[in-house]
C-alpha cells in the first residue's frame, strides 16, 4: 500500500512539474512564437508586434512574411502559432483546420483593409469599374499586375469576382512596393496592391510610395468609391476586406495574448495609426452645446 502511494505521489509530482513547465513557456507575457503574414499586411503586423513586445519585454514575436496560402499551410502543420488572413477559407480548408488543429474555427477580426488599384502618376485614368476589372482579368493583354499567385491580393480579387484562379490572366511584379516603383514603366497597366502598403499617414516610406502612383476609384452600380477609411468602415468600397487572425493555440498563451491585444483598445489604436480601419472600435463624435 505504501509503495503504491509513493508511486502515485511520484507521478503527481512529475505531472505538476511538466504542467508548470508548459504553463511557464505558454504565458501571454513571456516566451517566443512565430507569426506568419502575407507581405501585403507587413506594416500593420510589424506595428502590432512591436507594440506588444514593448508592453511585454520578455516576449519574442518572430515575424515570417510569406504568401497567404503558404501561411495557412504552416499554421496547419504547426510551424507557426498565428497567421493573418483576409480571404474566407474554403469548405475544404475549414475541415482541414478543424481536423489538424483540433479547434473550432474562430477568426479574430482586427482591421479593415482594401485591395487597391493603382496606375502611373501621369496616367489619364482615374477610375475603373468592377466589370472592367473582371474583363481585364480574362483578357490576353494581361494589363492587371499582381504581386504573386497564392498571395492575398490575388486570392481576394479572385474570390470577390468568383473567378477560378487558374483561369485569371495577369502580369507579375514581385512585391507590393515593387509594383508601385515599377508601374510607370507600364503605362497601360493597373497594379494591384494592399492599402496597408501605402496607408500610414506618418510614414515617410508610405508617403514616398503614394507620390509615385495614382489610386483609382472603383465604380460599382454607377457609383465611384475611393478606398478611404469611411468607405471601408461602411463596406462601400467594393474591394474592402477584413483582416483576421487564426491560431492553432488551444490555451491562453502568447499567441492568444497577442491576438487579444490586437483586437482590444491598445491594438486597435495601432491599427488606426497605420491608416487602416479598426474593426472593434469606431470614432465617436460628441456634440457639445
Automatic annotation (TrEMBL):
Residue span(s) of domain PBP: 24-262
Keyword Signal assigned to the entry: answer is yes
Q: Which domain of life is it from?
A: Bacteria
Coiled-coil residues are none
Answer yes or no on keyword Signal: yes
What InterPro entries does the record point to? Answer: PBP_domain, Phosphate_ABC_transporter
One family name in Pfam for this protein: PBP_like_2
Q: Which UniProt keywords apply?
A: Signal
Cross-referenced Gene3D superfamilies, in alphabetical order? Periplasmic binding protein-like II
Name the PANTHER family for this protein.
PERIPLASMIC PHOSPHATE BINDING COMPONENT OF PHOSPHATE ABC TRANSPORTER (PTHR30570), PHOSPHATE-BINDING PROTEIN PSTS (PTHR30570:SF1)
The molecule here is called PBP superfamily domain protein
Source species: Cloacibacterium normanense
Q: What is the lineage of its organism?
A: Bacteria, Pseudomonadati, Bacteroidota, Flavobacteriia, Flavobacteriales
